[in-house]
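ok so heres the complex, two chains, lmk if somethin looks off
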Amino acid sequence: MAKLEAGQRWRSSVCETEVIVITAGDAEITLTCGGAPMIDAAEGVATGGAVSTDAAQGTQLGKRYVDAAGSAELLCTKPGEGSLAIDGAPLQLKGAKPLPSSD
Amino acid sequence: MMLLEMAASGHGDRVAISCGGNSLTCAELYAAAGRNALRVSEGNASRVAFLDVSGPAFPIALFSAAWAGIPFAPLNYRLTGGELDRLLAAVAPCFLVTDEARASAISERPELDAISARAFFAAGQSGPQRETPWNMDSEEIAVLLFTSGTTGPPKAAVLRHKHLVSYILSTVEFGVAEASDAALVSVPPYHVAGVASILSSIYAGRRIVQLPNFSAEAWLALAQKERITHAFVVPTMLARIVERLEEAAACDLSPLRSLSYGGGKMPQSVIERAMERLPHTDFTNAYGLTETSSTLSLLSPDDHRNAFANSDPAVRRRLASVGRPIPGIEIEIRDEAGRPLAAGERGEITVRGEQVSGEYLGHDRRTGEQGWFPTRDGGFLDEDGYLFVDGRIDDIIVRGGENLSPGEIEDVLLAHAAVADCAVVGLPDEQWGEAVAAVIVLREHGDASPELLQDWVREHLRSSRTPERIEFRRELPYNETGKLLRRQVRALLRGETE
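and the predicted structre for the whole thing:
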């Protein structure tokens, strides 16, 4: 269990996936990738388990992932084979709404 | 670095930068940053400073500093003598990327490991790379940008990796650019927009075309030649571009989809003329500060078109607004006691968000309770949440996107033997946003012409700081506690103009 914080980076323990937290809810949650809990990217290294077959749709570089309530948003900074979930509920790919270019 | 690594793996074969005859793909830029990170960390440098016009060495220096885990400090290449020495002292010991002449002149100084931008670029093209990965700590300082303070020497705004990354991730979609997109960057490296434009374009996968020395002619020629689709300009640049377009109609800017502007107050007549000349271009007004990692609010292309087409003065005047906050940014207008004000009431623009730093090197953080940062800009929000900026609450003069400190110019004028007292203020100016004006009180038996005092300032500072207008008075307005009433000085000067 952990509370997400904007700017935090997480790494999958079973695949190459890495994410950065864009927005975070207040609740304590369990963030998983490939069915296994993710680890703080600044600390741990992948432990080498296997991606669970029911969480293997993969992550795509640069895409945003959100929970159903829209309270948490993650951005994929390295793609991998596992798929993301919070408290067991798979995260959904978020449609992009680009802002006009400002610089 | 995370942003560049994503770009190198997601669209590594896209051209990231082109300038003159040189170009680098995202993957080549990544490799060059790794090689030069090795070179940068060989000595005892605590910063990587960049003192040159923009060129491909600029993004390499930016990213190699990040990879080496030390702050990047772009310095104003227009500075001279003592002003420049003070900045170099503030960033030493440093690895300094600069022009050929300065690189050889500075080579004697042990605290500055100087290399020419050309040699630095060349060094990035081959050789071993730094193998250690970059520091992932987002709390580390990414960039130091020197801003003109209200008094005294410039101070450095601190932008940490977390601020810049937050700004990019909340404003740009990864890889969103089309393969033919090209962004023309004409702001200098030491401006926050110069840094932000590099990060935004690389993350979006948009080719950056650099224009080292702006002129309207060069800008238009390059925009045509490179089939530029996106560009950012400060108001002074847009005014000149529009003038040039009005003089010489034969200029094909049809690929130009997006033109954004910011860095100072845009005269309404200039933006209206620009929209007439470029009806197919989307205009975006971006308002932000160095201390907020660039853009805080945007007046969108649709807002521009709606305001432009509308005869209702309340809607039409939105052309003079800086729009609404970007995602992740909250804006409040507050009174002097820090209380939030209602729509339409003027006060200090106060902002909050992950990208807001509000921190200066060697000073206390200026963000107050709960992360709110007082910008020292005055303004108001209208009923629909559109922000209008009145100008600095302090008396900084913003001329052509450059912040000028009146105190600095006054000190130079006061050093002249004929000058007893003086006041320097900004006056509204169509071309520069603000123009520098001075009111002088001469000493008894003192004698000096405006021209003579202009030459005096130009000798000691630089031409942008030279008062365009000088008036003589027998005394200046002060309040009872001896504080100069700048507002009265401005009113006095404006009264004469009208």
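quick notes: The longest helix of chain B spans residues 26-40. thats all i got rn
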